[in-house]
Amino acid sequence: MKSSLVNMVLSLGIITVVAAAALAGVYTATKEPIAQAKAEKQKSAIGQVLPEIHFNNNPADEAAEVTVDGETVTVFPARQDGELVGMAVESHDANGFSGLITVMYGFDPSGNIRGFAVMQHAETPGLGSKMDEWFSNPAHTVIGLNANSANLTVSKDGGDVDAITAATISSRAFLRALTLANQASQQFASRQ
């Protein structure tokens, strides 16, 4: 093929079409498995954050989006024979040290924190990434606190929760996401 503007544009056009078709094919092939993996991760997290709460519905089937202070979070109501016995709330905060963190929190109807599962983060390994183990450690745990009465800010800011050593920004993001989740759960529960 002779090197000319027309031939170069034609070659680039063909390469672009082939690359776009390949990307579309990969997207189509992976879309469903990714969605299934996400649903399984959510289902597992709901069970993890609502330990010892017996429910006979599928909370994911009744998921509801709740908007609090301009942020939208997802509430997964756990019911026993139609009665609300707990809620799993997938919340987030974009102000972690490395950006967005997403956490699933579990609450009973009184606002007691039953558990949590970190779903996504990009925090610094060995520091902010320790939020899962730090906030479940009995010395620093948020589990068992009543989200309606506890001051869910780090002790450095006058709150009731010790921040992760050398990761105060990550701790603040975790607790802001927790506060948002609690507000959404209370808003959801008041409509029931």
Layout of helices and strands:
Layout: H1 5-49, E1 64-68, E2 71-80, E3 83-96, E4 99-107, E5 113-120, H2 131-134, H3 168-190
Antiparallel strand pairs: 1-2, 2-3, 3-4, 4-5
How would you describe this structure to a colleague?
By secondary structure, the protein is an alpha+beta fold. The chain has helices at residues 5-49, 131-134, 168-190, and strands at residues 64-68, 71-80, 83-96, 99-107, 113-120. The chain has a five-stranded antiparallel beta sheet with strand order 1-2-3-4-5, sandwiched between helices. A hairpin with a 2-residue loop joins strand 2 and strand 3. The longest helix is centred in the first third of the chain and has 45 residues, at 5-49. The protein is extended. It starts with a helix and ends with a helix. 32% of the residues are buried.
Helix content: 25-40%
Biggest β-sheet: strands ordered side by side in the sheet: 1-2-3-4-5
Strand runs, count: 5
* Biggest sheet character: 5 strands, antiparallel
Order of helices and strands: HEEEEEHH
Distance linking N and C termini: 71 Å
Q: What Rg is obtained from the alpha carbons, in whole angstroms?
A: 22 Å
Helix tally?
A: 3
Q: Strand percentage, roughly?
A: 15-25%
Which regions are unreliable across 5 or more consecutive residues at pLDDT < 50? none
The total tally of domains equals 1
Global mean pLDDT: 92
**Shape verdict:** extended
The structural class is alpha+beta
